Amino acid sequence: MRIIVLGGDGFCGWPSSLRLALRGHAITIVDSLVRREIDRELGVDSLTPVNSLPERLVAWREVTGTSIGFEPLDVATDYERLVQVLGDIRPDAIVHFAEQRAAPYSMKSPTHRRYTVDNNVNATHNLLAAVTEVGVNAHVVHLGTMGVYGYDTVPMDLPEGYLTVSYPDRDGDTHVRDILYPTQPGSVYHLTKSLDQLLFQFYAVNDGLRITDLHQGIVWGSQTAETSLDSRLVNRFDYDGDYGTVLNRFLVEAAVGLPLTVHGSGGQTRAFININDSVQCIALAVESGDDVGDRVRVMNQMTETHRVSDLAAIVAELSGAVVSHVENPRREAEVNDLSARNDHLVNLGLDPIGLRSDLLVAEIELARVHAARVKPAHVPAESCWNRERVAARETTT
Ligand code: NAD
Ligand code: USQ
């Protein structure tokens, strides 16, 4: 297939592009490289030394003999060029990773909130409008988030995207229909993924676009079989307070002897997936595009759920690190249960790796190799959208 990967220079997009290329697809990465600019804005850097995208692509060609194309392009602002690229390539599938993806970054200031909405909603809408305008029959595969479901206390296995509801009409007859699961986003970032869902629903019904929305859990781990082929192909590994996700942060903290930063009680339960399972899911989703009709296919891309405090205990046990409960900078329930169905991807062949201790240890070892690059000042999570509660607690203690 001809596949365009929007956001193919990022943490999930890069290893996914390599996996799809190795499976024989013709890949073009479209990326504005804004994420590298955001690193500079924040003064942070990946734990691993990441090469420039052109250098990565040269390395890939040298190692595998196959080429990956690159179009530098801002999907949210350069609609005309996007139309041109779609018209030139006429892709069979487009994988859409190109959004601002950190909840803490999206909550730093009004500027960051507005940037996140502008970038994410416009990127998604430009893509859908461009596919429609060009008239190409491309299957759109979007990376959404498990976070759109929210963290209710209803003891149920979250369905995949839709909730079946019944309601009476004026005559008292009962009707049954599937509706998009009501969203409860916990940050402006998560809100943009809720908005994306409505855009998808509209374009699937109105314009007949084939769309898969992958509700992905928190990705942990960093390297895949392909990124390990050559040091120049190494994937990024974020550990800073904005972009570092919880388990990866714990692994780096453990590697360099910092306490594991559990927010509040650590009773938050979240969905997780290893980066290797994530790239497998992308391939499964892309290669099953013929199954998608005029209803958006939603698949929960997660393999297990864990409590944050349990993850900290596992990492502490493996590494001897100390666990520290810090004030929670986020407005979120500090205790919740969560379980979710992932039948779609399992039925397509997902064979999850899960939270294996050898993989956790391998990531700690990788972090130890690059320990000199870790800047302890970048570790604290400083974006706070829970100020009233933090202040209230401080005055009562
Ligand atoms: P990332 O920040 O590492 O990568 C995103 C890439 O998209 C970057 O290379 C960036 O330069 C590019 N980009 C952003 N806006 C763009 C635009 N307007 N035009 C062109 N390129 C643009 O993020 P990631 O961790 O790889 O996440 C990718 C996607 O997966 C996101 O949509 C995110 O919401 C979703 N996701 C990530 C995780 C996770 O744990 N990392 C979990 C669930 C879902
Ligand atoms: N947390 C800690 N300590 C830390 C960092 C985080 O206890 O040092 C807690 C947070 O308070 C939260 C949980 O861990 O309760 C998860 O935080 P996270 O930063 O790992 O994940 P999140 O903000 O939800 O965002 C990440 C990705 C996002 C993706 C989402 C999937 O950045 O792109 O959409 O995971 S999900 O969580 O399923 O919505």
UniProtKB/TrEMBL annotation:
Record domain NAD-dependent epimerase/dehydratase: where: 3-291
Any one Pfam family match given in the protein's UniProt record, by short name: Epimerase
Family that this chain belongs to: Belongs to the NAD(P)-dependent epimerase/dehydratase family.
Protein name, entry field: NAD-dependent epimerase/dehydratase family protein
Protein species of origin: Gordonia liuliyuniae
